[in-house]
Amino acid sequence: MRGLLLYFARGILLTVPAVVTGWLFYQMFTKVDSWLGLSVPGAGFVITLVLITLVGFLGSNLLTRGLLAEFEQLMERLPLVRLVYNSTKDFIGAFVGEKKRFDKPVLVTMTADGAIRSLGFITQTSLDQLALHDSVVVYFPFSYSIAGFTSIVPTARVQRLDTSSSDLMAFLVSGGVVDFPEVKR
Q1: Is 185 part of any domain?
Q2: What does the alpha-carbon distance between residue 94 and residue 67 come to, in Å, rounded to a whole number?
Q3: Which residue, among 88, 76, 103, has the nearest Cα to 166 in the 3D structure?
Q4: 125 domain-assigned
Q5: Is residue 158 helix, strand or coil?
Q6: Element (H or E) spanning 54, and its range?
Q7: Which tens digit of pLDDT belongs to each residue from 128-159?
Q8: Residue 67 lies in a domain
Q9: How many domains does the chain have?
Q10: Tens digits of per-residue pLDDT, 66-82?
């Protein structure tokens, strides 16, 4: 009987993630297809990927950079739109693009005795404009979320980690369930 329960638990561990992943991708494909009025499953998703890549190509082209600059100036002139547009642009840019912000993984000592430490990413190395010359800004992601919190931390409490930012982010977002990435010494 115990063996059957063990097989059942192992079956749950193998089946549920696959079913949830399949269901989410199916929902995503069919939603995009319905928005575009397409009857071929997945065609809308492929078209969306092609269009995003085309926009990226055009945005990198010298001929369309002027149009892109005009569009961004328009976004800057609209108060509420500016807030949403710039926040979204900065958030996406923090993960992809030329100005990645989550590229400095750190271990931060949170208590004076060093008993409590947190993992995060330095997002600003200089706070001279705030007269905080010996501090950095550290972003601490929440588990199972894209949210997190930001703290100003004394530089002396921050230790840089020589590890992959994406591996550390996966570790943090998983709540520590994913194996900790190897730290190079």
Answers
A1: no
A2: 24
A3: 103
A4: yes
A5: strand
A6: helix 43-60
A7: 888 888 999 998 988 887 788 889 999 999 99
A8: yes
A9: 2
A10: 777 888 888 888 888 88
